[in-house]
Description:
Blueprint: E1 3-8, H1 18-26, E2 29-36, H2 38-41, H3 48-66, E3 73-76, H4 79-90, E4 94-98, H5 103-113, E5 118-121, H6 143-152, H7 195-207, H8 216-219, H9 232-236, H10 242-255, H11 259-284, H12 306-314, H13 320-332, H14 337-350, H15 355-365, H16 371-382, H17 397-404, H18 409-414, H19 434-440, H20 455-470
Parallel strand pairs: 1-2, 1-4, 2-3, 4-5
Helix pairs in contact: 6-11, 10-11, 11-16, 13-14, 14-16, 15-16
Amino acid sequence: MKTAVWWIRRDLRLTDNQALASALEQAESILPVFVLDPALWNSRRAGPKRLAFLLGGLRALDADLRARGSRLVVRQGRPRDELASLQAETSADAIYAEEDDSPYARRRDGQIAADLPLRLISSLTVHPPMTVVKPDRTPYTVFTPFSRTWKTLSPPSLNSVLPTPARVPTPTSVPSLAIPMELSLPSGVPFPPGEAEAQCRLSRFMDSDRPAIYHYADARNHMGWDGTSQLSPYLRFGMLSARQAAVAAYSAIASATSMEARKNAETWLNELIWREFYISILYHFPGVSRQAFRADLRDIPWRNDLQEFEAWCEGNTGYPVVDAAMRQLKQTGWMHNRARMIAASFLVKDLLIDWRWGERWFMQNLVDGDPAANNGGWQWTAGVGTDAAPYFRVFNPVLQGQRFDPAGAYVRRWVPELENVPSKFIHQPWEMPADVQHASGCIIGQDYPTPIVNHVEARERVLSAYRRAQS
């Protein structure tokens, strides 16, 4: 094979890139291509921060390719049309791409494969969705048995992680658009794009003097701590491969010097498996992108109060931990995972607003917004998805704040009007006496809103609504 196209989609990396490696094995020259697809670029779910992160990743990938005698070719238009043009321009024998399991990607790739020599390589996950199934080949719909089967499959080894190619020979005559410059990451977004940053973060999480992975199980829940890997944006766009992340987790498990350290590393591996579980659910049940997994909870009588939704979006609900979460999202394009659950529960359970509103808002604002993980997380919190727990799990935002942000560090960081509120009142400032409000410089109803809903009453309301939906 003389020339092959490497069609880049969600694999913005050179290390452990199985699609690129397959192309290099078969072809003398490789044309790395990214197609700006209007269907995705102009989607209502494509937020500017995530697009800016993607563009930054493309620039980083282009620099890495140029250091290896190559370059990134950028085209804009319908992928089928642009790939057909590139094949004609280069006489390419094949188009290699990493398989994507989202409903849109599967439709798109099926149509392209009918006309062009598209070769899909399964590397978005460690184990593809069709391999983690029950003995009768039907899909799992509960995480625990899925994870058990996942762990019985051959684990990836360090030797399976493909090295960065020293050279990527590329045709020089193929024209390219410039990588768009109109979007740039705001300074408050703490995620420098690119594979190099992803590798640094993985190494820091695993190999520092006090590896965070060995303290992950507890630290990950404390919103004011730096206890997570913060690798999700890089996994989202394949700046780090799922396989390399899993290999690192297995290595940490094997190297643990205590049972506690081992359990912490196993907890992080479980988070990687959750990612694969939700990808599997979206693959086998594409309808979850539009409706609840549970058929008996598809007709909940939502209130959908627009003013309350806007207060939630802006972080002005009067519940400090919810507001801190939403403001963190707005400023950084990211939100602590515990905070995601609290904020989502508040929208669905306290305000009785359709979970799909929140799911869309997160996709519009998250740098790491992933169709499968975001949908799965929202359905889990709303109690309408695959989770075996009952729908009447309702997070109390005050108790959640007291438990996972006891000193109020997270709240004070993102809700500065509460900075001087005594810790005793930081998660329920409406209980401050008037003199304490004046002393802290925070008058409730003036400097910070009164709660927009009574949690106790809201809990009864949502449980009644869910029961009516099931009757």
